[in-house]
Amino acid sequence: MHATQHQLPPPGKIPVIYVTTADALASCINQLAQAEEIAFDLEFDRNNFTYGFNLCLMQIASDTHCYFIDPKAGLDMTLAFSLLENPAIHKVVHCSSEDLRLLHHLKCYPANLADTELYAKLLNYERTSLGAMIQQLFGIELDKKMQKVNWGLRPLRPEQLDYAANDVLYLLPLKALLEKQGAEKNMLPFFRDENNLLSSTIHSMEPKDNFLKKNDLRYLSPCQQYILNGLFSYRDKLAQQQNRPVHYIMNDETIRNLASNKISRSDFQNIKGIHPEVKNKDGQSNLFDYIKKLHIEANNKKLSHKRNYVHARNVHFITEKAAWELVKASIFTPIQNDISAQFGEHAMRFIFSTATVNAIVQGQLKIEEIKAPYRKMLIKSSAQKLGKDLSGFT
Questions:
Q1: pTM value > 0.70
Q2: C-beta of residue 233 within 8 angstroms of C-beta of residue 206
Q3: Is residue 195 located within the same domain as residue 288?
Q4: CA distances from 394 to 213, 329, 370, 373, 376 (A)
C-alpha cells in the first residue's frame, strides 16, 4: 500500500499571493474564512540567526488559494491568529509541535487541528517527514535545501518562496489520502483522538530561570548546579542584549569549563568562538567578576558540594533495574508485540513506545493517565487477550 503513487492536483495551478499590506491581509482573511479546510505552516528562527523564537513567515492554503503572510511587514498578525483559532474551519498541519509552541507563545491557540504526520505514524509509515510522504505517495521529490536558511532576511529568494509554498500546497490532498487509508483500516477513531489531543494540548516555552539538563541535575552537586545555571543565565542575557543566538556568545562547552574552573582568566583570550563583547577587556572583567560572585553566593547559601546521584554500581539500583526489566519482559513487551502484529512495528512505536513503557514500569505514569483514549483501549485490550494483569499499573 505504501508504495502506491496517487494522482495529485498540480499545486502550480493554485495562485500564491504574498501578503505585505493591511488591505491584502484583510482580503486574504476574508477569502480563507469561507473555506471549510485550510492548511498552514510557519517559517521561524529559533536561536539560529537571532535571539529567541521568532515568527518569520506564515503560509496558509485552501484548495483554491495560497497566501504568504509576512510578519516582517508590520502586519496585525492577530487577524491571522483569529482565523487559526476559528473552530469551524479544519486546519491541516504536518509535524506541528514547534509551530504550535511558537503560536502558543504568541497567544494564538489554533483549534480543530489534524496533523498528517500523526496519521502517517499510525498507518505504519517508517519515513514520515513531509518530503518523504510526498515522495512515497505522489512520486514528487521536494527540494528541502531552504530548510535551514535565514527566514528573517528580506527579500525572500525565489527558492525560499517555492519551498514555503510546498510546505502547505500538498497538505490537503495528503490528508484526504491518509484518511482514506485510515478508513480502510478502521483507524479514523484513532485519528480523531489524536486530533482532539493535538487541539487541546498547550505547548509551553522552557523557563528562563533554569537552563540545566537532566544529567546536570542528576550528576552535579547543588553548588555546581547553581554556578552552571548562573553562567547559562548570564550568557542568555548577553545574547538578548546583542540579539544573537546564545551560541554566538559562548558555546556550551566553554560555559561548562568556566563553571568547573577549567578555564583561567589567562587562558580565556585563547578560547575560540567567543563574542567580542565578552572577549574584550571589559567583557572579560565582567564575566570573571560574575563567576566569583556566583561562588560567593553558593557558599553563602551553604549549597552542598556533594553529588548525590545513584551510582550504576549501587546494589539497590541494580536490583531495582533488574525488576523493571523483568516486568517489561513479562507484561509489556508481549503487549507491544501484540499491537505491532495488529498495526505494524512503526505504528506500535508511536502508540505504545518504549519510553511510555519505562515510565509506567518505573511508576512515573499510570495507564489511565495516557491522554489518547484509543491508546488506553488498545493496551488494555491486548493485556486482556494475553492474560496480562495490569492492576498495579492502571
A1: yes
A2: no
A3: no
A4: 30, 18, 10, 13, 10
